[in-house]
Amino acid sequence: MNVSKGDVVERIARVLAGQRLSANADGSSTSAGSQVDASWSDHVDDAVAVLRTLREPDARMAAVGDPEVWERMVLAALPEGHR
């Protein structure tokens, strides 16, 4: 199983920034990498909101895994004070 070396909140925030900036998504920049690097931290609150929503797995997720383990993993990913 692959395990990311990057912080999940930063990874989500970078995806959200890229979605808004990149022409490959909803943005207009054909080369958004440096803009994402400069602005991903503006999307941390949104990333935390996504993770907070994911604390509880849906029925399909729970059917193939352990919901308690999932919740502990997501809670561990949330920054202190956001659990």
Polypeptide structure, described:
The chain is an all-alpha fold and 83 residues long. The chain has one domain. Helix content is 58%, strand content 0%. Helix 1 (8-21) packs across helix 2 and helix 1 packs across helix 3 (44-53). The model has no long low-confidence stretch (mean pLDDT 90).
Briefly summarize what is shown:
By secondary structure, the protein is mainly alpha-helical.
Largest β-sheet summary: none
Q: Give helix % range.
A: 55-70%
- Helix/strand-derived category reads mainly alpha
Determine Rg (CA atoms, Å).
15 Å
| Tally of DSSP helical segments | 5
Question: What string, H for helix and E for strand, traces the elements in order?
Answer: HHHHH
Distance between the termini: 26 Å
Our estimate of the beta-strand percent is under 5%
Total strand segments:
0
Number of domains: 1
Oligomer: single chain
- What is the overall silhouette? elongated
Poorly predicted sequence stretches spanning 5 or more consecutive residues: none
Quote the average pLDDT: 90
